């Protein structure tokens, strides 16, 4: 699967694999794809450094990238990155936490209590905090990222702030930004983004309402000649062929890696839920981050969707509000509440396999689809 | 675009065009596709007969079909089709109308009044009644349909009742049924349906929540070896190539024909709205029929979606409740309220063109997509 973009980025197959797990990202690159490490869960830059160091040694010289989460609107380049550089961002976090209404905190407590989620042990720190989208944290991550020969900087929330774009381009690193509509995509293009990831309705994580079949060609047309990666609903080689037929220069896959052997979900119960889920078992909900994000439908998302529940708070408040709760749900594997961002392709994920096996299926399925299309078109090859 | 199914049905291209307009259906067949006439708007069998008569003379011997709307659950084959055969179904309609709450009628009146929709003239009959999904009406339509050499009977609401299936098969007419999930599709297969139309989230009209990119391959796998047509999000040849890459044996297009020259929308204002709408200007709403159906987002759908509005009634009550209102909105072209079922591809519909021109674009775009995919796959053809 060779496109203009894949040639430019020096990758064998135009398959970009987004994952929060370094072992998965490295395996994707080794398989001939482009591994992209999601940085949002790293609140300490040193941990990100450790993992990039590891990836650099385990990608066999192949290309890889990093995905940060930077809302352009939150950019405050003039503020000192002080404690964020120490790895916590706690000061800013405390100021933001003060904006969370007590009624929302009570709702979280009550929901956890209803499902018997154990209280944190005294002095127990949250194992999982979504602080990566706090501007200062994201900036401290970038200080680390540019110490490594990354070949792509992606931003899940659209165009990064202008100074970040400049910095990436100074390092000759192309920047990709996710878009859920042609309008978003044009805005990213105007901001100077190099690659647009068209994130369809069926995708896991933050997503809009336009499905990939319509969104991909619309974004391709809107930002021409910028290259577009199709994201959302892609987990087989046939789906890759479909996305490329729609004009994408490559595909961006996230969900399918969650059930690979290399994924470090640290929860057998969650892996079992993912393997059992059908395509109809996800929901677009604001319960996790404050913005609509597709995820497994669980008792947790149902609780937030109930008629008498409080409205989820705007990003980043909702993420801070639920961080401890999500961490405890995961730690104690409280099954009814246990979830994760994942797309509608979860229905295709029915067995745990090594990344290489998944990748081999992608390339084989792609070739099968091309054979089939040539037959339909009356071109015997 | 030749598949096993297109060969079996004797059609040049595996492109099925669904439309309520005989002139459009006939033009699709003449262009080398398979025109399917939607019968839901015919309450009088004689009108359907007149239009099928016309189609028979204007399809040049090419294959065409009819789409009825029969909820399997409403099947009452033992009831006499009495007044329905006379063309109205008014008796049953009256009994059903009695189930509509007065509060809902008042909401409709108030909404129409707010937008200045004129009252009906004394004695003016509704020009548009969705009575086609009343079982008796659908059955009286079938009496007409089987007098013509139709090559396909489709049912927009799933598998038709068993006796209808038998009747179609006695006439050697294959039956297609729309499905929004693999579970629906398997149910249709078990009922004896011959072709499944996988109707993705992005489609116009009644639709589920699984997008085409995921739904199509899932349904293909679920009902193998039954042939599957992909519906939802398809308006270009590139999208046809994508759908066929996903394993479909053909595509089912509805929205794109609405802005063809041959379409008899009888409303310049509605045509203008369709040509101006973007992919984000549709909504899945129960306001029109009682089941979620994608349509243009209008002040009418917004009114029903407002927090203090009554919940839409179940099918067929909602359709009967709003039939007169929709008819008056269309007749008087009350622009803010004016809408129609249409899919997210409405964003691609930017000029009024003859069916033949649309069809030529489909075949050209398909060939372009195949060329491109062969280049990506490293197969120079």
From TrEMBL, chains A, B:
Gene3D superfamilies: Aldolase class I. The lineage of its organism: Bacteria, Bacillati, Actinomycetota, Actinomycetes, Kitasatosporales. Keywords: Flavoprotein, FMN, Monooxygenase, Oxidoreductase. GO terms for molecular function: nitronate monooxygenase activity. The keyword Flavoprotein applies. This is Nitronate monooxygenase.
């Amino acid at each position: 699967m060779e496109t203009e973009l894949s040639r430019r980025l020096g990758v064998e197959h135009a398959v970009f694999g987004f994952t929060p797990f370094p072992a998965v990202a490295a395996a994707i690159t080794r398989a001939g794809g482009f591994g992209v490490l999601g940085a949002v869960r790293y609140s300490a830059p040193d941990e990100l450094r450790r993992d990039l160091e590891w990836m650099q040694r385990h990608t066999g010289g192949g290309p890889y990238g990093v995905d940060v989460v930077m809302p352009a609107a939150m950019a405050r380049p003039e503020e000192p990155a002080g404690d964020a550089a120490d790895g916590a961002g706690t000061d800013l976090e405390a100021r933001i936490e003060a904006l969370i209404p007590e009624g929302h905190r009570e709702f979280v407590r009550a929901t956890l209590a209803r499902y018997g989620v154990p209280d944190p042990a005294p002095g127990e720190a949250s194992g999982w905090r979504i602080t990566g989208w706090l501007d200062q944290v994201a900036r401290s991550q970038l200080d680390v990222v540019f110490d490594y020969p990354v070949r792509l900087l992606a931003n899940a929330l659209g165009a990064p702030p202008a100074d970040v774009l400049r910095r990436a381009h100074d390092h000759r690193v192309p920047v990709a930004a996710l878009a859920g509509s042609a309008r978003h995509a044009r805005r990213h293009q105007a901001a100077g983004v190099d690659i647009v990831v068209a994130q369809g309705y069926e995708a896991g994580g933050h997503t809009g309402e336009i499905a990939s079949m319509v969104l991909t060609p619309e974004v391709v047309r809107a930002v021409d000649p910028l290259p577009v990666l199709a994201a959302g609903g892609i987990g087989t080689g046939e789906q890759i062929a479909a996305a490329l037929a729609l004009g994408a220069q490559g595909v961006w896959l996230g969900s399918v890696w969650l059930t690979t052997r290399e994924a470090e979900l640290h929860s057998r119960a969650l892996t079992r839920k993912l393997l059992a889920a059908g395509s109809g078992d996800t929901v677009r909900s604001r319960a996790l981050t404050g913005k609509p994000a597709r995820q497994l439908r669980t008792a947790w998302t149902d609780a937030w969707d109930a008629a008498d529940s409080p409205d989820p708070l705007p990003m980043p408040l909702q993420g801070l509000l639920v961080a401890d709760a999500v961490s405890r749900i995961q730690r104690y594997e409280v099954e009814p509440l246990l979830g994760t961002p994942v797309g509608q392709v979860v229905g295709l994920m029915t067995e745990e396999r090594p990344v290489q096996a998944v990748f081999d299926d992608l390339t084989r399925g792609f070739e099968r689809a091309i054979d089939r299309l040539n037959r339909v078109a009356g071109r015997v090859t």
